[in-house]
Amino acid sequence: MGGEGVVEQVFDRQKMVGYDGGERGLHSYEITVSAAYALNSLKSSSEIVDTCMRFLRDYYPAARDAELVHAKVVRMPRATYSERPGTAGTRPPQLTTVRGLALAGDWTATDFPSTIGGAAQSAELATRAILDQMPVG
Ligand SMILES: Cc1cc2nc3c(=O)[nH]c(=O)nc-3n(C[C@H](O)[C@H](O)[C@H](O)COP(=O)(O)OP(=O)(O)OC[C@H]3O[C@@H](n4cnc5c(N)ncnc54)[C@H](O)[C@@H]3O)c2cc1C
Fold first, then answer.
1. 52 Cα–ligand 1 center, Å
2. Which ligand 1 atom sits closest to the C-alpha of 116?
């Protein structure tokens, strides 16, 4: 929507949890921003809310006259790591030197960055690593 570092995804939280908005006809949305370096380091929470509202109003005409009754900014700068040239070698393989112990997680060595796809592949590789150690038959 706004591009990387601005506004990426808008989730209709109300629809997700089955809330009808009550008597006041409220709406609840969640906006996510990845690689939010500029937003996180340069802007206060109220500035972030203003920026997001500006985008929402631009892209969703029905939001233009909406009154904002509540907003919360949740910053998670360390939730995932940022892949940079040279960081691939720092990710450990799933197989460890301890028999019967394998590592899984998006931070281990996979073909993907820190994503659901990476987490899923790491689980598959970890499972294979354990199974390969088991005696056949
Ligand atoms: C805001 C946000 C948006 C994202 N959006 C996307 C997206 O759109 N697409 C995408 O592909 N990826 C996205 N990701 C990344 C994706 O969520 C992660 O890469 C993925 O969930 C990692 O999976 P995982 O199993 O490695 O770790 P996690 O999902 O973090 O699972 C680790 C689990 O271990 C538990 N745990 C930690 N320590 C302990 C302990 N000591 N004892 C017991 N349990 C413990 C934690 O509570 C957690 O439940 C997003 C991440 C965030 C934070």
1. 25
2. 11
pTM of the predicted protein model: 0.75
109 Cβ below 6 A of ligand 1: no
63 pLDDT more than 80: yes
Tell me what percent of the chain is helix, strand and coil, each rounded to the nearest 5: 35, 10, 55
What is 20-32 written as a DSSP string?
--TTTT---EEEE
80-85 long-range contacts, CB within 8 A, separation 24+: 80/106, 80/114, 81/107, 81/114, 82/35, 83/113, 83/114
- For 83-114, write each residue's pLDDT tens digit: 788 888 899 999 999 999 999 999 999 999 88
What pLDDT was estimated at residue 33? Answer: 87
Tokens 């509540």 found at: 70
Judge if the beta carbon of residue 115 lies within 6 A of ligand 1. yes
